[in-house]
Task: inverse folding
């Protein structure tokens, strides 16, 4: 048998064996989530210092680049002024960033005191590398008292829940992820449903019967019945309603209250007592 | 065959790709744009230039790196990577990715295959949503658009340069 055919047979055989191994791992980790979490904890701990360092400088570097680009046309007329201006912009950006951070944390503290929420403030330091999963990594973990199934909030509303933790970081599954579900109700009509993510910054309110009256613009809040999120926390606003499809339930699309593309600081809460 | 040192370099490149996808690329991509699948590009390079048993193992481990960083399920990315590697290793003699367009087309098809296998593995255990189809197409297009340049870079980093010229290399040069 020619060498290349023998090699190809070996490759196909090995690939098939490894695929079966992958299938076994997938099935095993689906039944035992701690298996996937254990490896992720190690990776998260290894990445955390790098992610935190990148996160603290990325915003400043991006602003410096933006300001330099926009000032090139002006500063072309004077080389010395351009260098001086870029230096001053960098310093201004640093101070601006510190001020914004302080404002965000103050708003978080204000929300916490108004809603009697007890929790830990954390910063988002990374996103899930896969497009199939909507999750972020925050810079607080077991050492700060963070545990799995804790609710994660933003000053605008519900962000998601903690799904895995390491010593100094935690992974938060966003409400826009397909695997996440939040027991919810419409604030005015008190119609109940389950908010599930559809990926890409959107989610839907499911299991609402077609004969229930729902209007665009209505607020959807947590019901507090799932044991994770407290009652009355804002999830999103009804943006689209579709009753044309078959089946018992109408399709209700939500615009999440939280802007996940600009998520920087969050509050991780344990037991919630909302006024 | 792959030495331990070269396997370590491949895995390190995979880890860097995971980090880039989760931080820098996600930070700078426009609001609703997906990030390209850089690990798929690593697997494509392996499929073309390391088509032997250890190449399959390297692809499996590279996919496993992505699974470990996601912490949702362990195994679907590894399984998808191995299938893509196996497909490329079998047909690499008949495929040509030296040109920009060819690299884009091959990457697009490999991305579709990757997503198909990934979805088949994941949705055995999780519910499926119709939006998965658009996600698959968008990811394939974005990855294909950047593929030619990334593949050239990865080839320089990952592929061991032989002292002599193989028959295939000579044939390519003749073209």
Result:
């Amino acid at each position: 048998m020619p060498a290349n055919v023998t090699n190809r047979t070996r490759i196909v055989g090995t690939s098939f064996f490894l695929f079966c191994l992958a299938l076994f791992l997938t099935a095993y980790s689906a039944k035992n989530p701690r298996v996937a979490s254990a490896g992720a904890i190690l990776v998260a701990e290894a990445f955390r210092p790098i992610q935190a360092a990148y996160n603290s400088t990325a915003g400043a570097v991006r602003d410096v680049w933006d300001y330099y680009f926009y000032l090139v046309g002006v500063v072309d007329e004077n080389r010395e002024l351009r260098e001086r201006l870029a230096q001053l912009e960098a310093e201004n950006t640093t101070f601006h960033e510190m001020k914004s951070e302080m404002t965000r944390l103050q708003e978080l503290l204000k929300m916490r005191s108004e809603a009697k929420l007890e929790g830990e403030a954390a910063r988002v330091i990374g996103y899930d590398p896969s497009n199939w999963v909507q999750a972020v990594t925050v810079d607080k973990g077991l050492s700060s008292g963070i545990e799995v199934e804790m609710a994660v909030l933003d000053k605008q509303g519900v962000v998601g829940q903690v799904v895995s933790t390491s010593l100094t970081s935690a992974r938060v599954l966003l409400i826009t992820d397909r695997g996440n579900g939040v027991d919810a109700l419409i604030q005015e009509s008190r119609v109940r449903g389950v908010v599930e993510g559809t990926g890409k910054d959107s989610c839907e309110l499911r299991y609402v019967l077609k004969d229930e009256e729902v209007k665009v613009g209505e607020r959807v809040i947590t019901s507090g019945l799932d044991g994770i999120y407290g009652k009355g926390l804002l999830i999103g606003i009804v943006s689209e309603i579709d009753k044309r499809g078959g089946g018992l339930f109408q399709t209700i699309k939500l615009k999440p209250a939280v802007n996940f593309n600009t998520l920087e600081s969050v509050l991780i809460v344990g037991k919630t007592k909302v006024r | 065959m792959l030495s331990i040192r070269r396997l370590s370099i491949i895995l390190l490149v995979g880890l860097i790709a995971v980090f880039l996808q989760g931080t820098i690329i996600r930070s700078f991509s426009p609001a609703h744009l997906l990030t390209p699948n850089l690990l798929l590009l690593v697997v494509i390079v392996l499929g073309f230039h390391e088509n032997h048993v250890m190449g399959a193992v390297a692809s499996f481990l590279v996919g496993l790196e992505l699974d470990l960083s996601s912490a949702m399920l362990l195994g679907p990315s590894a399984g998808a990577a191995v299938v893509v590697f196996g497909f490329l290793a079998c047909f690499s003699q008949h495929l040509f990715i030296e040109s920009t367009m060819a690299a884009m087309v091959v990457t697009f098809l490999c991305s579709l295959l990757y997503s198909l296998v990934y979805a088949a593995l994941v949705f055995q255990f999780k519910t499926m949503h119709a939006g998965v189809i658009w996600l698959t197409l968008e990811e394939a297009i974005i990855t294909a658009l950047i593929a030619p340049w990334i593949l050239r870079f990865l080839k320089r980093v990952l592929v061991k340069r032989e002292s002599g010229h193989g028959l295939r290399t000579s044939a390519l040069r003749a073209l």
Notes: The helical segments of chain B are 4-22, 24-28, 38-49, 53-70, 76-91, 100-122, 132-158, 167-174. The longest helix of chain B spans residues 132-158. Chain B touches chain A through 57 residues (CB under 8 Å).
